[in-house]
## 1
Amino acid sequence: MESVLSGMRPTGRLHLGHLEGVLKSYVEMQEKYKAFYMVADWHALTTDYEKPKNITENTIEMYIDWLSVGIDPKKAVMFVQSAVKEHAEMFLLLSMITPVPWLERNPTYKEQKQELKEKDLSTFGFLGYPVLMAADILVYRANKVPIGEDQRPHLELAREMVRKFNNLYGEFFPEPKEILTMYPKLPGLDGRKMSKSYNNAVFLADTAEETEKKVKMMFTDPLKIKKNDLGHPEKCVVCSFHKIYNKECIDAVEKECKEGTRGCVDCKKQLASVLNARLAPVREKRAQFENKPDLIRDIIKDGNARACAAAEETMAGVRHCMKLG
Ligand code: TRP
Ligand code: SF4
């Protein structure tokens, strides 16, 4: 069976953008592949090393989010990066063969250094971010890697490392292929990208009331004030959500908005109830795992042990290829 690996940094609660994007493919892929889903806590340190933020709590929160959307710990191996030391060994060995200019050319490296000016990111660890990510993938000899658009350059680098490794030491690793989630981007409440840092997200952990409140805050067409004003649904966040969650009604929503027979208050009420229906099973599952630290601890422990076993097996092969041990 082919294997899949993906990871997320434990930087806070997951939201609807994650649910309709990458989490959906996590759930689908656990049926068809040997799936490894990783909390990338070491990666979180590459940018937040000065003030590590609640990595342990965020890790537990991430497990609860994952479990609540239907990732099944019996099917997928859910593990924590720092618990599998083989990632560090693989990282070190890959660093031997990775030319520094490959890393310096990496567009994400250049962009993030610019964007996060308040942090000193001239570190070896930050430059080596893609090497660690490649190590994560290679340790499980993963064939497929579900990622967001922003991670594509990293995966391309991982493939280059695989080609170089295989050329130097013999065919050992499969070239990992990306699985891009083909889902229309969800806007945040204010129309920008949905993101925790913009404070515009609907979280998986939000209650039905919180969700309803957030829908009320969504930006709408500023020219439509009264119900009978003629609206421009293409300029409205509520409409973008109807498009995704309320497909059967979208033609009616747009038509009524444009001709002034639909008011924003009702339109939002309708959306809130559709969203809450979508989130109801997620909330139900969440209740099974919330406030059960022992249960989560056992799931983490079991996942870590299974990941370690797979990683040890790969590393024995790697050491052999590189004439070590
Ligand atoms: N860099 C990824 C992100 O920030 C997280 C990640 C770490 C990852 N290791 C990975 C993703 C390996 C896929 C495969 O989103
Ligand atoms: Fe948006 Fe609906 Fe108001 Fe039209 S009626 S502007 S789609 S909230």
## 2
Amino acid sequence: MEKTITNQELIAKAKQAMTYAYTPYSNFNVGAALLAADGRVFLGCNIENASYGATNCAERTAIFKAISEGAKDFVKIAIVSSAQDVTYPCGICRQVLAEHMPEGRLLFEDAKGNIVEHGMDEILPLVFSKKDLEK
Ligand code: THU
């Protein structure tokens, strides 16, 4: 059941996910929409915690939801935030994204409403990955 979804539609889904963000501490809302190779789209938002450290970013929420629902290969992820400009993933999310979508594309929307696209190799060059464990 391969479905096609445009980059614009994936960004719109990330914006929808952002409305679910639980951010009483930072008031900084992030939304993600992850497209799996099987056509499913998984939404993620950041979910904060009074301990601060237990906070989960939007990107990892989407990835963990997807993996736990049996999805395996990912094509792209759209990421938006309440900053209304490009918000790049934090270091931990980059590492997690690199594990599960090394060939995937990342979509953002800039302040002018243009879609900005990057590859994993651009946002996390010289990555430590499972290949290193085989050396
Ligand atoms: N945050 C994300 O959800 N994704 C990112 O890539 C950057 C940071 C969240 C974590 C926290 O809830 C808030 O943004 C402020 O750091």
